[in-house]
Amino acid sequence: MTNMEIDAKKSVDEQTKPVVVEKSEEEKASETAALVLGDLKHNFYLLEKAVLTAESRFTTRALRITASIRRRITSDILKQAIQLKFPKEHGTKTKLLSYLDSSESMEVDTADVKSTEVLPEIELYISLLVLTFILDQKEYNKSIELSNYLIDAVHDYNRRSLDQISARIYFYHSRAYELTDRLAEIRPKLLAAQRTATLRRDDDSQATLLNLLLRNYFHYNLYDQADKLVAKTNFPESAGNNQFARYMYYLGRIKALQLDYSSSHAHLLQAIRKAPQNDTSAGFQQTVHKLAIIVQLLMGEIPERSLFRQPVLRKALTPYLHITQAVRIGDLAQFQDTLAKFSHVFRADKNYTLILRLRHNVIKTGIRMISLSYSRISLRDICLKLHLDSEEDAEYIVAKAIKDGVIDATIDHENGFIKNKEIVDIYSTNEPQNAFHQRISFCLTLHNDSIKAMRFPLNAHRKELESAEAARERERELAIEIEEADLDDDDDDVGDF
User: Fold this and answer.
1) pTM, whole model, 2 decimals?
2) Could you give the C-alpha distances from 113 to 15, 34, 46, in angstroms and in order?
C-alpha cells in the first residue's frame, strides 16, 4: 500500500469516526433525575402489587432498592414524586412539601396524577424518603417532627401491609432522637410499640424495636435492664439477617459484661457471619470485630494476624493489634503504655472496662511463658519480670494461675520459689474432645439455620396433593380397564369353545 493510499484511508476513517459530544452538568442531572424517578415509579408499582396480592416480598424488594435511591435522591426528585402520586389538597402532600427547601422545583408533568386517594403504603413510603433526606441534610429538628407524625399515621392506619415500612420508620425515628441526644424520651413509646408488635406477630417491627430498645439501654449503660429485656422477650425467627446480626452483637456484649465469654464469643461469631460482607456495613463489622477480639483475648486465645490485615478493618483495629501483641507476649509494661496511648479510642468504643480485665490475662500469659522457660524460679524474679508491686502479689497471682490450670506447678512458700511439674501429654486430657465438640456444634447450628432460612412456594403442598389425587384416579381407571379387558378375553374364550 502506497503512502497516498494510507493517507486517503486515514482521512476516510477520520470522517466516519463518531463525534463524542460531552454532556453538560444540567443534562447529566436531568438524566440522573429521570433514572431515579423511574426507580421510584417501579417501587410504587411493587407496593401496589404487594397490597393486591398480600405478598410481603414485593415490599421487601422495594425497600431493598431504596438504599441505592437514597444516595441519588434530591429535593427536586422528591417534589416530582410527591406531585406525581398525591392528589391536590392532600394533607400529607402539603406537609411533606413544607419540609423540603423552597427552591424552584423542576417542571413536572402532572397529567397522570390520579384524583383518588393515594395508598397508605405509597404515602408512608414517600414520607420515609423525605425523612431520610432531611436526616442526611442534618435537619434533626425537622426529622423529629416528621417522624412523630409518621408514627401516629402508622397507628391510625393499622394495616399489616405496612409492617416493613413501619419498622423502617421506627428505626429513623430513634435515629433522629439519638443524633439529638434525646433517646430517653422515646423509650416508653418504643416499649409500647414492641408489646403491640409482639401481640400482632409483626416480626419486622418486633425485631427492629427490640434492637432499638437494646441500643437505647446501651447508650445510657443500663446493661441490667437490657439483660432483663432479653430474658423476657423472644427474637422472631423470621426476622432478616441484618436485624439478627445486630441482636447477636447486643447479646454478645451483654454476655461479655457478665463474664460469660464463651457464649459471648459464639454470639459475636454469629453476628459477623450474618452481617453483609460489603463496604456499606464496614462500621458494623469494625464494631463487632473489636468486641470479638477482646472477648477472644479474655478467653485466653489469640486472634489470627490475618484479621488485622483486612482492608476494611486494618485502620480501625490498629489499637487492638497493639493490645493483642502485649497480651500475646505477656508484657505488662507494653500493655499499660498501649492502654494509656489509646484510652480515648477504647472509651469511645465503650470497651475500656473490658480491656482493663485483660491485665490479669497479660500476667497469666507472662507466668505461663516463664513456667515454660524455667523449671524453677523465685517469686522475686517473677516480680521483676512482670513489673509487679511486691512478692506477695506475685505469690497470689501464681497461686491463682495454678488453681485455674494455667500452669502446672507448686509453690514453696518457705523458700519463696515455684517449681514446675513435668509436661503432660495434652491428648490424655479432654481438651481435644471439647474442641471437636465445639466445631461439631457450630456446624449443626449452621445447618439448622440454613434449613430455617429456606423459602418454598406458597400452597405447594396443595399442588402435590392434587397431583397425587390425579395419579390415584388414573390408577383406578387403569385397573378398571384391565378388569374389563380380562372379562372380554374370558367371554371370547368361551365363545370359541
Assistant:
1) 0.72
2) 48, 17, 18
